[in-house]
Amino acid sequence: MGKKEDVEQAIRREEAQLVRLERERKQALERLNALKEELRHFEGDQDGEQITSSEKLSLFMKLFRGRDDVYAKRWTNAKKDRRGYSPAFALVTVL
Questions:
Q1: How would DSSP label each residue in 14-77?
Q2: What 3-state class would DSSP assign to 7?
Q3: pTM above 0.90?
């Protein structure tokens, strides 16, 4: 095999890899669930169902979780007398 230190180092590498994989798995599951939720809303639209504001907010929160550069931007359509929010992003400047 090798020295004890080599084996201990290999164990630490594998444990770190497992932590990274678990984090990636969690993120992938969150994205998958958000996409399934989004699909459910599309299917609901076809049946004539309306998406509530709280459902839209929940979807945006899931899709943009952990994104400090994404925020809600209010819009208004005066002709149709409608208002709402859309996702927007901030350009980050590095000096």
A1: HHHHHHHHHHHHHHHHHHHHHHHHHHHHHHHHHTTPPPPHHHHHHHHHHHTTT-TTEEEEEEEE
A2: helix
A3: no
Q: Are 42 and 59 in contact (CB under 8 A)?
A: no
Q: By the 8 A CB rule, do 78 and 65 touch?
A: no
Q: Which residues contact 46 (CB under 8 A, 6 or more apart)?
A: none
Cα distances from 17 to residues 13, 21, 59, in angstroms, run 6, 6, 31
- Residue tagged 């209010």 (tokens): 74
Residues 22-39: pLDDT tens digits?
999 999 988 888 888 888
